[in-house]
Amino acid sequence: MLGYLYPLRTYFVVAGDIEKPNPMTADWVIPLSFNPPLLGVAIGKKRHTRKLIEKQKDFVIAVPTVELLKDVWTAGTLSGSRENKAERMGVTFVESKKVTAPSIKECQANIECKVVKQVETGDHIFFVGEIVNVSHGDGFVDEKPDIKNYKFLMHAFSGKNFTYQSDELIKP
Amino acid sequence: MLGYLYPLRTYFVVAGDIEKPNPMTADWVIPLSFNPPLLGVAIGKKRHTRKLIEKQKDFVIAVPTVELLKDVWTAGTLSGSRENKAERMGVTFVESKKVTAPSIKECQANIECKVVKQVETGDHIFFVGEIVNVSHGDGFVDEKPDIKNYKFLMHAFSGKNFTYQSDELIKP
């Protein structure tokens, strides 16, 4: 019944470290608080990433545009417990400023988070992260996405079905 | 720093009852679990809607398309503690099947939820709801959004700046 919330934005959730980055793909990401700045991500209980984040207590939300669709699909369909996903992808992992989890150079933003709470929600664990640093590219100006020039990736619905936002700005 | 997660989908969160519906607008909505089917919504602590949901323990997430932009803006900018927002809007509130909170006839989906958990997250309260019923229009077929024919509303960034998803389906 979750399909009625789609289409939704798609992001990378990066755990691990610069020696062994572990990226996955997540549509289930949400802002939670302005002050302190918090966001949340829901990760399946059986996922390798869940175990890593529980242990290292930090993660990065990296913001892909449509050019990274193949990497998004790779990160979302392989398991980090069995394969080195980072090696199968075409992106460059770089050190983050304030967390152990690495950032992705080709993403338009890398949002570094430290876990402040985790909550069981059915078959997922919901991690609440405090945003401790953000690095970004030209896709954002004054913390606003440049929707005229960048296509931010969205999952249209389950499976290999993606889209992006329109470049039309509409006003009420 | 939350601007780096935008653009994000925009929804109505409806509380109150059919006699006195209380809709607000929320970008901060997330799927949380397949089994049981759960979703979450973060609502500012000082919001009237927060008090209503805490009391009535249910709410509806209603899915607007671009045609409802003016109503989305009205619901997002007036306070339900001072005004009867429902009367200022052009939509039709109808009874939901399994919760007290009403549904919105003109929305493409109405997702009825019962609160199963609430968590403090900074300046917001995060309500976890179990989905107990969904009613929907032609905007969804087999629980999938029809992105070719419907423009699902998105908040491009803060303020009067909205957009919607592209009608192009892309495959990895």
Sum this structure up briefly.
The structure is a homodimer of 172-residue chains. Chain A is mainly beta.
Would you kindly provide a written description of the structure presented here, covering whatever features stand out?
The structure is a homodimer of 172-residue chains. Chain A is mainly beta and 172 residues long. Chain A has a single domain, classed as Pnp Oxidase, Chain A (Roll), CATH 2.30.110. Chain A has three helices and 14 strands. Chain A has helices at 48-56, 69-77, 85-88, and strands spanning 8-9, 11-16, 21-26, 29-33, 38-44, 58-63, 93-94, 103-104, 109-121, 124-136, 140-141, 144-145, 153-157, 161-164. In chain A, the strands form four sheets. Chain A has a seven-stranded antiparallel beta sheet. In chain A, strands 1-13-14 form a three-stranded antiparallel beta sheet, with no helix packed on it. A two-stranded antiparallel ribbon of chain A has the order 7-8. Chain A is globular, with a radius of gyration of 15 Å. The two termini of chain A are 30 Å apart. The mean pLDDT of chain A is 96.
Q: What would you call the shape of chain A?
A: globular
CATH-assigned homologous superfamily of chain A:
Electron Transport, Fmn-binding Protein, Chain A
Question: So what's the oligomer here?
Answer: homodimer
Order of helices and strands of chain A: EEEEEHEHHEEEEEEEE
Average predicted local confidence, pLDDT of chain A: 96
Low-confidence parts of chain A: none
Question: What is the strand content of chain A?
Answer: 35-45%
Radius of gyration of chain A from CA coordinates:
15 Å
The biggest beta sheet of chain A is recorded as:
7 strands, antiparallel
The figure for the number of domains of chain A is 1
Please write the CATH class name of chain A: Mainly Beta
Number of helices of chain A: 3
Sheet with the most strands: spatial strand order of chain A: 3-2-6-9-10-5-4
* Gap from first CA to last CA of chain A: 30 Å
Q: Helicity range of the residues of chain A?
A: 10-25%
